[in-house]
Amino acid sequence: MALAAAGCASATPGTSDTSANTPARAAAAITTAQAEQAFNTYVAATAQAISTDDGTLALSVVTGAQQAVVSAELAMDGAHPASGDSAAYSGVLTLESAAYTYGTPAFYLPEPTGYPRFFVADVTRAVKGIRPAPGAVASVGGAEVPVDGRVLMLFQQSTAAGPWRLASTSQLPAGMRLPPLATDKNGYVPQVPLTATDLLAQPYAAGPLQAAVVDDGPASAAVKAVDEGPLTTALYQAARDRSGTGLQVPRGDIYQWEMEGTAYPAFALQTANGGALVLYTMYLNRTVAVPSYINKGDPIESGPPIAVPLDLSLLLPANRPTPRVELEGQDLLSFAAVDPPAGAAKIQVIAIGGGLDYAVAA
């Protein structure tokens, strides 16, 4: 299958930076006891970090995309809301690292290859001390997910002597299901090379194909390979409508969005029917700017004031001037997608996590 490029809705297409994992050397198989210890260490440390408002401790048990998102949350918590209303933003670690209670996790342990090692904890979590109304949802990158629900937590260890840390958390929206995974005689799940050619698409292409749909919607050629749903066509509509962003577009300015790849590693586990569960991360950028900035004009002309939503203001320098050229917010999002065997159904993106990690204004 030809790889559909991922591009922004009104600019030059981009592609994913994820590539096949090349193990440096053999690694020992992960045991269930190791996975349980890593999971419990994360849960305990995060609970303590929240109760003591200890950002250093919170960052010590995360890595990769999760660390970037938690770092942004800590920066937002330490900022002063531009509106002057401290009640408009609520406290430390409110998104990916909120205080949760967890059920009993199921651990998916991959067959050993090399480093980084990883495993997945499949667990149901609930926000501690809160009983949301039935059907209550939260927004992640414009997608609606249940406030409480089932998540896939990807843990990673970079070296033999390194600690296990949480690399991403992806939650299943209502109606999404995780397919059964394959296991060998010892209960381990075979890994799938990111360049495997016996699937609908090579696993590394799941992100770029999803991005093409999020960027261009039903007009994208990638809809031939990617199923519609809350994390593809609905995410396109949410990006187009600026849902949940608070972004406003002054008269004469342009709004655009773009999903693009990251340098964080991707992983793939074999499903029972010979497909792959692919775990990866993507950036989702949203920009409001004057036409000369979008079109790389010279000179770039300033336009009318661009209103800055509260969450973006918390990631910008204090006492900044009102932007008149551009305002950009970036989400760092984790995903799980099911890449079926060749000739089978379309790729289905089944889980999302992450949050805002960057903002710039001029």
Top keywords for this entry?
14 strands; 7 helices; alpha+beta; 362 residues; 27% strand; five-stranded antiparallel beta sheet
Describe this structure in words.
It is a single chain. This protein has one domain. 19% of the residues lie in helices and 27% in strands. The chain has helices spanning 32-52, 55-60, 64-78, 206-216, 233-241, 291-294, 310-313; strands spanning 6-7, 13-14, 100-102, 106-108, 117-127, 137-140, 143-146, 149-157, 165-171, 254-261, 267-270, 276-289, 326-339, 348-361. Helix 4 (206-216) crosses helix 5. The strands form four sheets. Strands 3, 4, 5, 8 and 9 form a five-stranded antiparallel beta sheet that branches. With 362 residues, it is α+β, with helices and mostly antiparallel strands. Mean pLDDT is 88; it is low at 1-24 and 80-95. It is globular and about 65 Å long. The N and C termini lie far apart (41 Å). The protein is built from seven helices and 14 strands.
Q: Low-confidence stretches at least 5 residues in length (pLDDT < 50)?
A: 1-24, 80-95
Measured distance between first and last alpha carbons: 41 Å
N to C succession of SSEs = EEHHHEEEEEEEHHEEEHHEE
Number of strands: 14
| Share of β-strand residues | 25-35%
Classify the secondary structure makeup into a structural class: alpha+beta
Give the overall form.
Answer: globular
Q: Radius of gyration, rounded?
A: 20 Å
**Describe the biggest sheet?**
5 strands, antiparallel
